[in-house]
Amino acid sequence: MENKLSMNMKNAEMKKNIKIPLIFLLLLIFGSFLIFLGSRNDAVTVAKSIKSGVLTADEINIAFQNVGGKVTKRFVQESQMVKKGDPLMQLEDIDTKLAIDRMQALVDSQKAAVNQEQAAIKITENETNLSELSTWRKIEEMQANLEAAKSAQYLANIEFDRQTQLRKTGGNSQSQLDNARHAFTAAKMQVVQIESQLSTLMIGATPEQISQFQQTKKATGMTIQSITIARQKLENRKNQLAQIQAQLAQGEAELKQLQLNNERLTLKAPEDGKVLKLMFEDGEMVPNGAPAVLLETDRKYIDIYVNEKMVNDYQPDTTVTANVIALNKEVKGKVRFATAAPSFADLRMTRERGQADLTSYQVRIYIEPIPKLLTGMTLEVEK
C-alpha cells in the first residue's frame, strides 16, 4: 500500500516537472510567432518604413572684408529677421575718409600733370613739324642763294680776268685791278659760306635724297638730323607721359580701394535670414577678417540615412515629398547630395533576418519654404 502511494507521488511530481518547461516552450513559440507577424523596430525595418530628419538651416559667419576698427553702431539685434542688403553693423570711418581726401587730392594733381604734359607734347610736336617744314624751305632758299653766289663768282672772275688783261696793257689802274680781285675773292668766299650752310642744313639726308634735291630743287621729305633728334626727344617725353599716366592709374586704383573699404565699413546682410548672434558690442574693436554676425539663412534642409539598397532612389536633384509632423502638411524638397555616412551609422554583421553588412548613406534634402515651417521641426520623407 505504501509502495503504491509513493509511486503515485513520483508520477505526479514528474508530470509537474514536464509541464512547466512545456508551458514556457509554448509561450516562447507563441511570442516568436507574434514578433514575426508584428512590426519590427530594428534599423533596417525602420529605415524602410520611416525616413525622418530634423529641419536644419544653413548658418553663415559674416565678417568685415579686409577692414577692421571700432564699432560705432549695431543696426540689428539677436533673433531679428533681415533682408539681403540690410545694414547690420557700422565701423568708424574717420580715418578712411581722411585717406580718401588725401588720395583724391593726389589723383587731381596727377591728372593736372598729365594734361600739362599732353599739351606740352602737342605744342612741341607742332613746333617740330613747323621747324621741319621751315628747314626744307631754308634748304631750297640756300640752294637758290648758292646758285646766285656762283653766278656772281663767275661774273667777278670774268671781271678780274678782264682787269688783269687791261693792267698788262696799261688800260686801267692798279686800284681797279685790286678792286676786281677783291670782288672776285668775296664772291668766291660767299659761295663757300653758302655751301657750308647748305651742307649743315642737310646733315642727316641720304645720298639719294641729296641727289634728288639737286635735280628737283625740292627738299620736301628730306631727312634732317636736327628734326630727327627733336622727334626722339618728343618720344622720350611721351614715355614720361606714360609714366605719369601709370602713376595716375595707380592713384585712381588706390582711391577706388579706399572708397570700397569705406563701403565695407558698413556690414550688410548677404541674404535673407535671422540674426543668431552679434559678436561685438558698440565701442569694441573688430579685428581684420573676424566674424561679426552669425546669420541663420532661409536655406533649410534635413538629413536622412538610408542603406545602400535604397540610395539610388535619392540621386542629386531628385524631388521628394516630406510630411511636416507638427503642421500636418506636405512639403517638397530636392536632394542635394547622397554620400557615405560615418561608420557608426552602418549595420554591422548582425545577420538579422539573414542580412550581412549594410553601409548607410547620408542624404541631404533642401526643403522649399512654407508658412510656419520652423527650424527644429521633424519631417518624414515619404519616398
Beta-strand content bin: 15-25%
Q: What's the quaternary structure here?
A: single chain
Q: Which word captures the global form?
A: rod-shaped
Uncertain runs:
39-48, 345-356
Order of helices and strands: HHEEEEEHHHHEEEEEEEE
Give the count of helical stretches: 6
Report the helical percentage.
40-55%
Gyration radius, rounded: 54 Å
Distance between the termini: 78 Å
Number of strands: 13
Mean pLDDT: 86
Structural class of the helix and strand makeup? Answer: alpha+beta
Biggest β-sheet strands, sense, barrel = 9 strands, antiparallel
Describe this protein with a few key phrases:
383 residues, nine-stranded antiparallel sheet, four-stranded antiparallel sheet, OB fold (Dihydrolipoamide Acetyltransferase, E2P), 51% helix, 6 helices, alpha+beta, 13 strands
